[in-house]
Design goal:
Layout (H helix, E strand, L loop, with lengths): L18 E8 L6 H11 L3 E13 L2 E7 L2 H14 L4 E4 L5 H16 L6 E3 L14 H11 L5 E2 L3 H8 L7 H11 L6 E4 L8 E8 L2 E8 L9 H12 L6 H17 L26 H7 L14
Parallel strand pairs: 1-2, 1-4, 4-5, 5-6, 6-7
Antiparallel strand pairs: 2-3, 7-8, 8-9
This protein binds adenosine-5'-triphosphate and magnesium ion (MG).
Catalytic activity: 4-amino-5-hydroxymethyl-2-methylpyrimidine + ATP = 4-amino-2-methyl-5-(phosphooxymethyl)pyrimidine + ADP + H(+); 4-amino-2-methyl-5-(phosphooxymethyl)pyrimidine + ATP = 4-amino-2-methyl-5-(diphosphooxymethyl)pyrimidine + ADP
Protein name: Hydroxymethylpyrimidine/phosphomethylpyrimidine kinase
Organism: Promicromonospora citrea
């Protein structure tokens, strides 16, 4: 009975979790890529969706193979998903190749013409911490010319900011701040140039927006387990933005979450315990679940996290 009656569209209550989408690649080791993004969304109270752009064969010791998802399949994933699911925020990570980057840009342009999603974070994954280039030159051009103008926040590391601007990497905080401001001319609403690769007792990122530049600092955590910090930060920014009044408070809260995850990383032993013989050369993941473990008291984290502001 009633099977033929049309079902009215469901309505979300005010306390509904933020629905966040990551458009990114798979990291089977779970420290980066969609796996890190979904864990971050969940840890910060959101509901996560994921569109895959590529598969990697990867561990804490590096990437051995990348298989792009065909661009028309990226288009179909996005079209099918967004016809049904209303998105509050989107994070874009690995764009894999020029065709995939174009497919993402086309879908986002259509969506944003209709006013959704309200917040788009672009993590321009182009240069690994090792210095290796991760995107071909034609894909870099699509990212700069088509995706950057669609982003509300872009989050390059120092070498990526330099590639986007066609200059050399910033060597200090002042140069990073200048480059963050220069990036705004390429079209994003805000630019966060990350200072993880600089030295010093603090990890300082430069956030540029219409009102100027602000330096966002967090204590630098002494750990080798930094796999996926960039993915974690950008997805935290995306899922936190709808609950914060502006990008600056959202990015501050995202850095607080990431710093906790870095502080808990040494206690999370992932990598170096498998079948490969010989000494381990990897970088393990940060602990995306640190705040839950801290609240539950199931792990002595050897520090006092302030989870109240997340
Ligand atoms: N040791 C650390 N302690 C605290 N914060 C850090 C540390 N290393 C990096 N960060 C922070 O992590 C975030 C990511 O910065 P980073 O410059 O490492 O980006 P990335 O190179 O894109 O990362 P990834 O290699 O994961 O892609 C920034 O907010 C940065 O300040
Ligand atoms: Mg990165």
């Amino acid at each position: 009975m009633g099977a033929d009656l049309p079902t009215p569209a469901p309505v979300r209550g005010d306390d509904h979790p933020v629905v966040a989408l990551t458009i990114a690649g798979s990291d089977p080791s779970g420290g980066a890529g969609v796996q890190a993004d979904l864990k971050t969304f969940a840890a910060l109270g959101g509901y996560g969706c994921a569109v895959l752009t590529g598969l990697t064969a990867q561990s804490t010791t590096g990437v051995t193979r990348v298989l792009p998802v065909p661009a028309d399949m990226v288009t179909d994933q996005l079209g099918t998903l967004t016809a049904d699911v209303g998105l509050d925020a989107v994070k874009i990570g690995m764009t894999t190749d020029a065709a995939v980057a174009r497919a993402i840009a086309a879908a986002l342009r259509d969506l944003r013409a209709g006013g959704r999603p309200p917040y788009v974070v672009l993590d321009p994954v182009m240069v690994a911490t090792s210095g290796d280039r991760l995107l071909a030159a034609d894909a870099e051009a699509v990212l700069r010319d088509e995706l950057l103008p669609l982003a509300d926040l872009v989050t390059p590391n120092l070498p990526e900011a330099a590639v986007l601007l066609g200059t050399r990497p910033a060597r200090d905080a002042a140069e990073a701040a200048e480059q963050a401001t220069a990036l705004l001319r390429l079209g994003p609403g805000h630019a966060l140039v990350k200072g993880g690769h600089l030295d010093g007792p603090e990890a300082v990122d430069q956030l540029a927006g219409p009102d100027g530049v602000v330096a966002l600092a967090a204590p630098r955590v002494a750990t080798r387990h930094t796999h996926g910090t960039g993915c974690t930060l950008s997805s935290a920014c995306a899922v936190l933005r709808p609950r914060h009044d502006g990008w600056e408070p959202a990015v501050r809260a995202a850095k607080e979450y990431l710093t906790g995850a870095l502080r808990a990383a040494d206690a999370l032993v992932v990598g170096g315990t498998g079948t490969a013989p010989g000494p381990w050369s990897g970088h393990g993941p940060v602990d995306h679940g640190w705040a839950t473990r801290a609240r539950e008291g199931t792990r002595d984290l050897a520090f006092q996290p302030d989870v109240s502001r997340l």
